[in-house]
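User: Batch of two.

Assistant: Item 1 of 2:
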Amino acid sequence: MDMCSGPLLSKIVMFALPLMCSGVLQLLFNAADIIVVGRYTGSTALAAVGSTTSLINLLVNLFIGLSVGANVVIARSYGAGDMDAVHKGVHTSILMAGVSGFVMIFVGIALSRPMLEWMGTPADVIDQATIYLRIYFVGMPAVLLYNFGAAILRSIGDTRRPLYFLTIVVNVALNLLFVIRFSMGVAGVALATIISQAISALLILYCLMHTTGACCLMISELRIHKEQLADILRIGLPAGLQGVIFNISNVMIQSSVNSFGSAVMAGNTAASNIEGFVYTSMNAVYQTAMSFVSQNIGACNFKRVDRTLMECLALVSAVGIVLGNGAYLLGHQLLGIYTPDAQVVTYGLYRLSVVSTTYFLCGVMDVLAGTIRGLGYSVLPMLVSLTGACLLRIVWLMTIFQWERTQLCLYISYPVSWALTAGVHLVCYFTVRKKAFEKARAAQAARNL
C-alpha cells in the first residue's frame, strides 16, 4: 500500500481492517483457552488461565515494544526510499526475535511460580496457573518471531498476509482434543496455543523468505546491524519498558481482584477477555497511525501526518464507543459463552459496565502515543503513559482503593487514568511536532547531497 499519496481515510480503513481481524484472531487463541476450560474443566481452571494474562504481558511486552521499534524504523526507511536500510532492519529484527524468544523460555519458566505467589494467587488456583504459564513460555520464540515478522510486513503496508497466517482453527481443534478427549486441563489448552503459534510463525517466516525486494529474508544474512539496532532500541525500548511497567499496575490490579476470591477472579477473567476484542480493534488503529505517520514523516509529507492523526482519532473513538458499549449491552449472553456459573456472569457484567463502556478513552490515548512514536519520539510518550496510566493507578490502589475496597473503586481507575493520559499526550504532540518536521527536512537534505 502506498501510504504517502492518494485518499487517506479509505487507505487507513483498508490498512486497519486486516489488523483488527489479525488481533481478533490472536485474541481468540486465549479466548478459546478460557472458553474450553471454563465450560469443560470448571471456574477454578478458568480463574487459573485468566490470572496468567497480566504476567504474560508483563514479561513479553518489552519485546513486543521492540517490534514496534522495528516497524517504525523500517517504515521510515521505506518511505524515504532507503532500501539498504530496510534490508538491514529486516535481518536485525528477525535475529533479535529469535534470540529474545529463546531467552524468554528460561526466564518465564523460572519466574512463573514466584510471581504468581507474589500476586497472592489463591491456593486452589496457583498450581494450574503455574502449569499454564510454563508451557506457554516454551512457545515464546514462535510468539516473538510472528510479531516481529508481522511488524515488518506492516511497515511496508501489508496487513493482509499476517492475517492469513493465523491458524485459529488449529488452536480450537487442539483445545477440544487435549481437554475433552485426553482430559489434559490447563496443560492441554496451553499446549494447543503454542502449537498454533508455532505454525503461524513458520508461515510468516516462509512468506518473508519468498518475498521479493528489500524485505526478503535470507538466513545467511541474519546479523545485527549496529545502526538499525540502535534505531530500533531508541524507538522500541521505551515502548517496551512502558509496556512492562504499565503491566506492573495491571498485575497489582489483578492482585486486588484476587483478594475478592476465585468467583470474582473468574468473572474478571471472562470480562477482560471480552474487552480484549474491543482493545485489539482499537489497537489496530494505533498501529495504523504509527505506520502511516512513520512513512509520511520519512517522505516529508507533513500535512498528511496531521490528517492521519485526526482521522485515526475519529476512527478509534467510533470503534471504541460502538464495540465497548455493544459488549456491555450483550454482556450477559457473551459471558454465558465462557461459563454457565450465574455468579461469575454477574461479576463479569459489573466490570463491563465500568471498563468496557469507557474503553474508547484508551484508544484515544494509544493513537496519540503511536503518532508521537511515528514522529520518532518514544521516550516522551513512555514517560507520560507511565505517569498517567501506571503511577496514577498504583497510587490509586494504595490510597483511594484502601479507603473504599469495592470492585467499583478498583475498576474506575481505568477510565480516569486513560482520560488524563490522553490529554497530556495531545499537548505533547503539538510540542514535538515542529521539531520532528525540521529533523525530517534535514534528513532528506542529507540524503540528497
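Item 2 of 2:
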Amino acid sequence: MPPNESDKKLSQIKSSVFSRSLSLAKLGLGAGIKYASTKITNSSLDDFINSQALHITKEFGELKGSLMKAGQMLSMYGEHFLPPEANKALKTLQADSPPIAWTVMKKHLEDYLESSLIDELDINPDSIGSASMGQVHLAIVKSTGEKLALKIQYPDVDKAIDSDVAALKKILSISKILPKGIDLTNVFEEIKTMLRQELDYTLEAKQTYMYGELVGQDPRFIVPKVFERYSNSKVLATEYIEGLKADHSLVQNLSQQRRNKLSENFIDLYFKEIFEWNFVQTDPHLGNYKIQIDSVGNDRLVLLDFGATKKFDSQFITYYKQMIKASIVHDETLFMAGARGLGFIIDDDQADYITAFKTFCYETVEPFWAPEDARNSQQKIAPDGTYHWKTNDLPNRVVKKAIQFKNFDLRSPPQDILFLDRKTGGVFIFLSVLGAHINARKIIDPYLNNV
C-alpha cells in the first residue's frame, strides 16, 4: 500500500473562473507594483524577474489546473528565450504538487461516476500521485482483486483553460519574464490545444490502447490495460502495475550494465516514436515511467500516461527528421532543407543568425556524434562510441548557447517544436538519472538510414 500522505493536503480547489481570475489578478497587480518599485529603488531587473518567477510558480502549484500545466509546458521551451533563473523556477512545476484531500475528491468522483460503480471499488484515500490536472488513487476491484490506478480529474479545470492561459501570458509579460518583441501567440494556442487533449480521459484511454498495440509483445516494455467500466471523460481506470521510479535507490544500485540496457531500451523506444510510429508521448517526466527489476536481469520499463501523446503532420515530422539526421552527420544541405521547411530559417535571416542556429543544433546532438567527428575534439564521445549522460554538462552549454538568440529578431517557433523539445529534454533527464553510459549512435543509425 502507498505510504500516508504528508499533511500538505489542499482542502479546496479554486475551480471557478471567477475565483481563479481573482487570484491571478492579485498576482498580476503585485507584479506590477513590484516592478514599479524597481524603478524607484534602482533595484536590479534580473533580481525582480527571478523573484517574480519563484513567487509565480508557488501560486501556480496551489491553483493547479491548466495554469500549472501551461507553466510546465512553457518551461520546456523556455531555454530558448526565458532568463535562466526564471525558467529554472518554472521547471519546479514538474514536481508533484500538494494533493487534494480525499474528502474533497470523493465528492467530485461521485459526480463523475455512478455510485453503483464506485461501490464495486475499494479506494485508498491516500493519493499515489498528484499533478496539475488531477490525482491518482489506488483502487481494488472487490470482486476480482484487480488493482487499478484511478485518475480523477480536478473539477472544472476544463472551463478555465482560455482564461488561465491568457492570464499566464499577461502575468509573464507584467513580470517582465517574457522578452519584448517575441510573439508566442501560436505557442500559447498549441498549449491550449494540448491542455484540452490531456483533459479528455476518453481520448487518453484510446491512446493508451493504441500505444499498447504499437508496443505489441515487446518484452522490454509494459503498457497498462484500460478498465473501460470505470472510465469516462473525467475518470480513467488503468491497470496498476508495480514498479520503481528511475531515481529509486534499488534502481540506482543496479549494475552499470543493467542500467545501460534500460537506457538503450528507453532511447530505442524514443526513436520508434519519432522515426517509425509518428506517435509520440510528449510528457516524459520521471513520474510517467516505472522500472520493474527482474531477478535474472531482464528489467522492464512500465510506460504510463498517454494523455499528451501526439501524432504530427507528416510534412512537419519529415522536416524534423531531416534536421535530426543532418545535425548528427553534419550534412549542411540537408540541415538547411529541414530548417527552412520548419521555418527556423527564412530568406531574410542574417548570416550571423543562421551560423548561430546551425552551431546550436549541431551541438545539441552531441550524444550521437561519431568518435571521429571533428566536433568531438574534447572527447565527449569515447573511442568506443559511448557517452556519459550523467556527468556531461551539455544542458548547461545548450542553455548558454540559446541565450545568444536574444541578440537577434525572435519569431514564434513552430508550434509542434514545443512538445518535441519537451520530449527530448525529458529523455535526456531520464538517461542522466539512470547514469547511462551507452553508445547511442549505434542505436539511432538504423533509423537515420531511412531518412
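The two ends are 47 Å apart (CA to CA).
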